[in-house]
Amino acid sequence: MDDRYVQQFKKGSLEMILLCLIGRGETYGYELITELNRSAAVLGYAKEGTVYPILYRLQRAELIRCRLAPAAANGGSKKYYALTEKGRDVLHELLQFWERYAHCVNGFIAGYRQTEASE
């Protein structure tokens, strides 16, 4: 299969997935990447160069907020991300859309499979 098609599917849903993960509770970037990579068989491997630009974009859109906290390990600081009220509202809208979208796509898939099975 041409990897371009798979990449487009993943790109389109990654923002929603990140909002879902952040919506579970305050978290930081490395934790998000680790969680995404647990699902690597489907999503592929998440990289900093993919995730952090999306986090910055979500922050600029005021869908998430971040706070700096001291990092225990190295004396530096860690950015923790949380959903804003606007982010929670947008996530709810995205999830409703996703359910309608998936239902529609699944209908097309079922129709195709019925045709394929009858051949």
Which parts are unreliable, with pLDDT below 50 for 5 consecutive residues or more?
none
Helix and strand pattern: HEHHHEEH
DSSP strand tally: 3
Mean pLDDT: 90
Q: Separation of termini? A: 23 Å
What topology, given as strand order, has the largest sheet?
1-3-2
The major β-sheet equals: 3 strands, antiparallel
CA-based shape:
elongated
Strand content: 5-15%
CA gyration radius, whole angstroms: 18 Å
How would you describe the oligomerization state of the chains in this entry?
A: single chain
Query: Structural class of the helix and strand makeup?
Result: alpha+beta
Commentary on this structure:
The protein has 119 residues and is an alpha+beta fold. Helix content is 69%, strand content 13%. The chain contains five helices and three strands. The chain has helices at residues 3-23, 29-38, 40-43, 48-60, 85-118; strands at residues 27-28, 64-70, 77-83. The chain has a three-stranded antiparallel sheet. Strand 2 and strand 3 (77-83) form a beta hairpin. Helix 1 packs antiparallel against helix 5 and helix 2 packs across helix 4 (48-60). The radius of gyration is 18 Å and the shape is elongated. It starts with a helix and ends with a helix.
